[in-house]
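Example 3.2
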Amino acid sequence: MALPEKKLPSSNPKKPFNFLDIPFINKFIKSKWYPGIFQWLGMAFFGLIVFELMTGTVNPHRNWGTAMTWVLWWPIVPILFILVGRFWCAVCPFGKISDIVRRLVGSQSPMPKFLKKYGIWLIDITFIAITWADHIFGVVHSPRGSGILLLLLLTMVIVTSVFYERRTFCKSLCFLGGLAGNYSRAGMLELRGNPDICRTCKTQACYKGSEKAEACNMFQFVRTMDNSAECNLCGDCVKNCPNESIRISPRKPTMELWGIKKPMLEQSFLAAVIMGIVLVQNVTMLEVWNTILNGIGTVTRTSNFNVNFTIAFIIAMIIPIAMLWYASKLGSKTYLDTTTKDNFIRFGYAYIPIDLAGHLGHNLFHLLTETKALYYNTLGLFGVYKTGDLAVVSDGTVQIFQFILVAVGTWLSIYAVYRIGKKKSFKQLWPFYLLMLIFGIINFYLFSLPMDHRVH
């Protein structure tokens, strides 16, 4: 009796699911309605929000613009980064305004070499500065302050759009773009090209543009993309591609973190900085915050809030950076053929899942315990004034969600270490495992303490 023929493994990997294979989605993304319909709606809401921030009540608890910005939009944006990558950047009002300005009065000069080289560092500095200024000047708790911040950012968008090509501001100066880039690396959606088709493409329309759509506003060349950090999912490359090479596919969260071909110091540094910012945002909402300030005041011999907060803020920024450096130094002795700098650059990306968990946990508190402020403040626009409990769930329920987020984020960061370390032994990777576990425990502890509400 003949033996059954042994099947050889297929030389062709399984084709990823492609949302563009769905006719309705394909047609919509290639149409003039995408992403324009979302952009114009976003601009309308942005205009109304700024108007309310600048002309409405100065009471942050009753201002509709404050509620829309800090209770709804800010908590939801990180969730979007996980689910759909940088899609927010495709529909962001600032991005649309940039496009309009460039078409009307833009000079289309190349992005300065300085911005190309140091753009992410500028984003790091801007993110730190805005977070510091929020606590010093009370931006979040001031409708006028929030409005001025948005108008300052809008001014920067307009100025850069007048002088430089594409979305120079979004790529090299926008602090939210930097945050989006880091978080989108852990996201569940990716846009890529078919390497076999792209290899033979002569038009390079995805990068250069065509009569169908503009060139890629984020300076991305689909053929060489290995990450989602700077892809806005604007759809222009889909419109421009003459070969139907583009795919938009779901993927496992965080899988990009260990597949980056050229990890960069400034991006790992930003991941560490975000951890410090998350710590600041959480600690300042706890009762222990006053104790910390008093302790610093004892050392500085001053009760000046600005001085003591700045010192606490600097310490919070330094802690995750210094701990990553120390773990990297230990790793250079346990993980063969690597330097401290190499480890810092590569394993810094493992911070991203726990960054996200801490950020989402913080924002989830505001979203779920202050949601009804949106309803009450919307009624206020029409002269109907009502008050009541703002929460949709109890603080205890929120804590359960926060603990789950921290547990998942910590596990994903630990797994990212395992994959970035090429599945080496525990003995070689233990400094990085311990680092992620420590920050997981810190976040778990902070969320176990009662937090103060932003809106009352």
